[in-house]
Amino acid sequence: MRFSSNIKLYVLLLIVGIFLLLGYVYFSFFTERLNRTTQSGRTLFCFSRRTDVVAVTPWLAPIIWEGTYDPVLVDNIYKPMNLTIATTVFAVGKYVSFLRDFLETAEKHFMVGFNVRYYVFTDRPHDVPSVNLTQGRHISVIQVPGSNRWQEISARRMEIIQTTIESQISRVADYIFCLDVDSKFHARWGAESLGRLVAVIHPGYYEQTRDHFPYERHPASMAYIPMDEGDYYYGGAMIGGFVEDVYTLTKICRNRFEVDAENSIEAAWQEESHLNRYLLYNKPSKVLSPEYLWQDFKAKTKEVKVIRFSGVIKNYAEVRPNV
Ligand code: UDP
Ligand code: MN
């Protein structure tokens, strides 16, 4: 009796063992298939391997981080569309000195292989450097007035972008990016950044909770955001998207800025405050991680695997008309 119950136990253990073995073989085969790579070496499945960053907003817009997309695949989708990307950059007063590095590094890294039309706004057209542009890329220099207040120069960008979209850009471009000139490109900024309305998370606030965001907090301002609202703190050094959507954004921000000015109000961070207010109620369809807007004085953090675009260190007293 005892002998036969032992046999039963052994048989049971053997069966369980066989099932475990089969399960192991099946799962390793399945996992291997999931991780299978194509001939070009790109992963077919399980592409997003980032677990250290959030790659989607609560309204399901992608947040673009290195390692969450396939640049080859993205290029294969967008390049055949023969898109034209307008890029506005202001270089008023001494900021004209930032243009050379901005343009030369953009030629190496920004929307390479696309038609790019730079619109340089300056009060010093003769000081715009001549930079070798690759095929399909052009520069238009547009004269704008100077000012003795940097706040005004920075804020009037909305108005000037709006009117230039109306008069020229809407006829020639599909997408537009509006960028700060005191910056350089360091790595690919490509078609993964294209979307209907695109904003970038400010590098100074991506690790902060919203009560730390420097939104405009006075209810009297048109840029007001209450303490219990807000998704991200977006950087004013980059606005992008379809020309039509950026047009609406600049038009509304400009109007709100002017209403504030009539009431002698200047929002905490000028047009950046108005941008943040606009984007709270008009959610961006794509959000760029701080890889797309870093600051040279800021040490790289472990989440930021690639710095693509970064503000240079500048001597404010030297370059700005007022401090
Ligand atoms: N700007 C300019 N001349 C000035 C001040 C500002 O052309 O005297 C433009 C320039 O494009 C600059 C942008 O406005 O990149 C925003 O200003 P700034 O870079 O000084 O602001 P920050 O990035 O330091 O907040
Ligand atoms: Mn700047």
From TrEMBL:
Cofactor note: Binds 1 Mn(2+) ion per subunit.
Localization in the cell: Membrane
Pfam family, one: Glyco_transf_6
Membrane topology: Single-pass type II membrane protein
Identification of the protein by name: Globoside alpha-1,3-N-acetylgalactosaminyltransferase 1 (FORS blood group)
Binding site residues for an alpha-L-fucosyl-(1->2)-beta-D-galactosyl derivative: 202, 272
Membrane-spanning parts: 7-27
Family note: Belongs to the glycosyltransferase 6 family.
Keywords: Glycosyltransferase, Manganese, Membrane, Metal-binding, Signal-anchor, Transferase, Transmembrane, Transmembrane helix
Lineage: Eukaryota, Metazoa, Chordata, Craniata, Vertebrata
Residues annotated as catalytic: 272 (nucleophile)
GO terms for biological process, alphabetical: carbohydrate metabolic process
GO cellular component: Golgi apparatus; membrane; vesicle
Binding-site positions, Mn(2+): 180, 182
Record: residues binding UDP-N-acetyl-alpha-D-galactosamine: 90-92, 95, 180-182
A Gene Ontology molecular function term of the record: metal ion binding
Cofactor list: Mn(2+)
